[in-house]
Design a protein that fits this description.
Layout lengths: L3 H8 L7 E3 L2 E3 L4 H13 L2 H9 L33 H7 L5 H13 L4 H9 L5 H14 L5 H7 L5 H11 L8 H7 L5 H12 L6 H7 L6 H14 L5 H7 L5 H14 L5 H7 L5 H14 L5 H7 L5 H14 L5 H7 L5 H11 L10 H6 L5 H10 L7 H10 L5 H11 L5 H9 L6 H11 L2
Antiparallel strand pairs: 1-2
Helix pairs in contact: 1-2, 1-3, 2-4, 3-5, 4-5, 5-7, 6-7, 7-9, 8-9, 9-11, 10-11, 11-13, 12-13, 13-15, 14-15, 15-17, 16-17, 17-19, 18-19, 19-21, 20-21, 21-23, 23-25, 24-25, 24-26, 25-27
Length: 455
């Protein structure tokens, strides 16, 4: 029996292309490799098995380097879809495996296979007496896409097993066929919330604005997870007439729904969302506040400046950093004092965002003192940000002198950023600093310097 480490090896993908055996390129796994992989998935830790199934379709499975001593390995699995007809029987059999991740892996391999018999096998499995097999078959048809098995999937929306109906809805969402909107709209009224949620997601990915009316009609669904999916789907369709409903959903009692509604409003970039987003910056849920910041950043409305400045004091450092970046996008010099205070924040990520934002502001007469002070920060990330921000001010002697010090920093990423900024300066002091960096231990620093000096 394979240990869980085998499954870890399975999950590491060889995304660089097809595996070579004895100098011969080979695309796609063989039947034997499929059998070995399925056995390893069955034997390993269930969570790692799911992780491996997640990674399918991203270039093939293969070895992830030399590994550690004691690891058990399986033969490399060819990248690309299954082209070996002998692999179909073990994959079809695996559609009924007791472990869900094995069923999903098999369905993915079948769905991606260009073999003429693969779609037929999935269609046949969709009529299996076992609901787990039918669910996997619907999943595989969704992976295949291109409308294959469309009528069978529409019929599966009425499957007595909710998991099968939900998988069928998601599969229909992978096809742009406008005929799918009507049956998916009907699925939005099914009793099981998992089916309604899948139908909402499928309508959102359809790209058909006719789906908007169906989603709007169900925006008051009694299940918060369905409302969350509907809010996200309305944003995916990018239809302005959904804005009033999204504004209402941004006030939902469930934070996940509020977050999804605000994320969709950010995608729509509609000015009507300004007041709701500004109010949502006071929401008790951090994810809601983060989404509200994204709305305000997308609008780039100067009226947001006071609220964004207040958000620089939020309890969550990610919110403070996002607020700093949003202020930078406004490019209004009036936010400089607030950003200068944020450049002294206790969290390095906030200081980085504030220092970078200061360089984006219009109308600054001189290099901000906060940027100069950041160049001596204990954090490498902050010093790197300062070196990059000083590029805007390289006409000032004080900026060049600070960059000349940074190009001798102990960290190579700081030196690189400083060299790139000095390359934009024209002064003799800048060129002297660059010449001293020609002997830097870092190849990239030397390359930047050589290019700047014309070597």
């Amino acid at each position: 029996m394979h240990s869980p480490l085998v499954v870890v090896a399975l999950a590491l993908l060889a995304s660089a292309g097809p595996v070579r055996l004895h100098g011969r390129p080979r695309t796609g796994p063989t039947a034997e490799e499929i059998r070995v992989a399925l056995d390893a998935l069955r034997a390993g830790d269930a969570r790692l098995c799911s992780l491996a199934a997640d990674r399918l379709g991203q270039g093939g499975w293969g070895r992830g380097g030399e590994g550690l001593s004691g690891e058990q390995r399986i033969p490399a699995i060819g990248a690309g879809p299954v082209r070996d007809p002998a692999a179909l029987p073990p994959l079809v059999e695996a559609l009924g495996d007791a472990r869900p991740c094995v069923r999903r892996a098999a369905a993915t391999w079948l769905g991606e296979s260009p073999l003429p018999g693969a779609p037929g096998q999935l269609l046949s499995a969709l009529t299996s007496p076992g609901p787990a097999v039918r669910e996997a078959a619907a999943y595989g048809l969704g992976v295949h896409g291109e409308g294959v098995g469309r009528d069978a999937l529409v019929a599966a929306l009425r499957d007595p097993a909710p998991a099968v109906a939900a998988a069928a809805a998601r599969a229909l969402g992978q096809s742009p066929d406008p005929r799918n909107v009507a049956p998916l709209r009907s699925a939005l009224s099914q009793a099981d919330p998992a089916v309604r949620r899948a139908a909402a997601a499928a309508l959102g990915s359809s790209g058909d604005t006719a789906a908007v009316d169906a989603l709007l009609a169900r925006r008051g669904d009694g299940d918060p997870r369905v409302r969350e999916e509907i809010a996200g789907a309305l944003g995916n369709l990018e239809e302005p007439r959904a804005v009033p409903a999204l504004l209402a959903l941004a006030g939902d009692s469930t934070p996940e729904v509020r977050t999804a509604a605000l994320e969709s409003l950010a995608a729509l970039e509609d000015a009507r969302s300004f007041d709701v987003a500004r109010t949502s910056l006071q929401d008790p849920d951090v994810e809601v506040r983060a989404a509200a910041l994204r709305v305000l950043a997308s609008l780039q409305d100067a009226r947001a400046m006071p609220a964004l400045s207040t958000a620089l004091s939020d309890a969550d450092p990610d919110i403070r950093a996002s607020a700093a970046r949003a202020l930078g996008q406004l490019e209004d010099a009036r936010s400089a004092p607030s950003l200068a205070r944020a450049a002294k924040d206790g969290a390095a990520e906030v200081r980085v965002a504030a220092v970078e934002a200061l360089a984006d502001l219009d109308g600054l007469d001189a290099v901000p003192q906060a940027v100069l002070e950041a160049s001596t920060d204990a954090s490498v990330e902050v010093r790197t940000a300062a070196a990059g921000s000083l590029r805007r001010f390289v006409r000032e002697d004080v900026a060049v002198r600070r960059l000349a010090a940074l190009v001798r920093d102990t960290d190579r990423s700081v030196r690189r950023a400083a060299a790139e900024s000095l390359a934009h300066a024209q002064s003799a002091e800048a060129r002297t600093a660059l010449r001293t960096a020609l002997s830097d231990s870092d190849t990239e620093v030397r390359r930047v310097v050589a290019r700047a000096l014309g070597h």
